[in-house]
Write a structure and sequence with these properties.
single chain, 152 residues, alpha+beta, five-stranded antiparallel β-sheet, 3 helices, 19% helix, globular
């Protein structure tokens, strides 16, 4: 091998080593209570977390969604719960109202919400669990299974 090729390969290896672990995951399937959820932008995996377009997941969960473009904040609500996420903020705020009292808890996200292809992507597990769902990952089939809480 010549020295120029070795230098180029070395430079590429250094640049790749510093790159973030983000990649589109067209082959990921997301199911909610046994039904596939379709997305207009493919889920991505970043730092071992699956991010999906917010509107699709919130609407599939039955939550209302509002977007504030000025602050880059999304608010979703369903029943006695609400979630607030802001682009780039590692905290998600989950509020629960019971007996005329509201309790708000900040949850630290492994990966904050981000904008990809003009869509806001949010961490699937954190948001689903905020609405009391159970989330499982099958690495063999690359399938995320979300199960809604059983009604009492």
């Amino acid at each position: 091998m010549n020295k120029k090729l070795i230098s180029a390969l070395s430079a590429a290896a250094v640049m790749t080593a510093g790159a973030s672990s983000v990649f589109a995951a067209d082959d990921i399937t997301v199911k909610l209570d046994g039904k596939d959820i379709n997305f207009d932008v493919a889920p991505i995996i970043e730092n071992d977390r699956t991010l999906v377009p917010l509107r699709a997941i919130f609407e599939a969960l039955g939550a209302q969604v509002e977007w504030d473009d000025t602050t880059k904040t999304v608010v979703s609500a369903k029943g006695d719960r609400s979630c607030v996420l802001q682009i780039g903020n590692a905290n998600m705020f989950v509020s629960t109202t019971a007996d005329a009292k509201t309790e708000t808890v900040a949850k630290t996200l492994d990966v904050p919400a981000k904008i990809v292809e003009d869509r806001t992507l949010i961490p699937l597990r954190a948001v689903s669990e905020a609405y009391s769902c159970t989330v499982d990952w099958d690495g063999n089939t690359r399938t995320v299974t979300i199960t809604s809480p059983k009604s009492e």
